């Protein structure tokens, strides 16, 4: 009797989690950063490596002329900003 009750309670808890977790964790956002110290292809490679260390599947677009980095990922912008900073490239988040 007690064992059956535990199984019923667990299955009630599991169902909503299975339905909601894919929605929460696969939501991707496009984040824009200004990286003022980025000036050449070597900087670009270092920045790409830093971003990939946070999210291997992130989509990255780097424009050296405007010193902007666009990242498409489900990971928070703050995590990328931290990785950029620790690889020597402080950044500012840009709107849109
Ligand atoms: Cu450089």
What's the helix and strand layout?
Blueprint lengths: L1 H24 L3 E6 L6 H14 L4 E5 L4 E6 L3 H10 L5 E3 L2
Antiparallel strand pairs: 1-3, 1-4, 2-3
Helix pairs in contact: 2-3
The structure holds copper (II) ion.
Description:
There is one protein chain. The longest helix has 24 residues, at 2-25. With 96 residues, this protein is α+β, with helices and mostly antiparallel strands. The N and C termini lie far apart (57 Å). It is 50% helix and 21% strand. A hairpin with a 4-residue loop joins strand 2 (59-63) and strand 3. It has helices at residues 2-25, 41-54, 77-86; strands at 29-34, 59-63, 68-73, 92-94. Helix 2 (41-54) packs across helix 3. The protein has one domain (24-94): Alpha-Beta Plaits, CATH 3.30.70.100. The mean pLDDT is 84. It has a four-stranded antiparallel sheet, with helices on one face. The chain binds copper (II) ion. Copper (II) ion is lined by residues 39-40, 42-43.
How would you sum up this structure in a few lines?
The protein is α+β, with helices and mostly antiparallel strands.
Helix/strand order, N-terminal first: HEHEEHE
| End-to-end gap | 57 Å
* Name of the CATH first level: Alpha Beta
Strand order of the largest sheet: 2-3-1-4
Low-confidence stretches: none
**What is the percentage of strand-forming residues?**
15-25%
Number of discrete domains: 1
Helix and strand content put the structural class at: alpha+beta
Number of helices: 3
- What spatial form do the alpha-carbon principal axes imply? globular
Q: Compute the average pLDDT.
A: 84
Major beta sheet summary: 4 strands, antiparallel
- Rg (C-alpha, Å): 20 Å
Second-tier CATH architecture: 2-Layer Sandwich
Number of strands: 4
């Amino acid at each position: 009797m007690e064992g059956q009750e535990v199984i019923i309670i667990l299955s009630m808890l599991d169902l909503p989690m299975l339905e909601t977790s894919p929605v929460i964790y696969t939501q991707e956002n496009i984040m824009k950063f200004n990286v003022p110290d980025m000036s050449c292809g070597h900087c670009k490679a270092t920045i790409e490596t830093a971003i990939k260390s946070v999210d291997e599947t992130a989509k990255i677009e780097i424009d050296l002329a405007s010193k902007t980095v666009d990242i498409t990922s489900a990971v928070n912008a703050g995590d990328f900003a931290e990785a950029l900073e620790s690889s020597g490239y402080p950044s500012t988040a840009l709107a849109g």
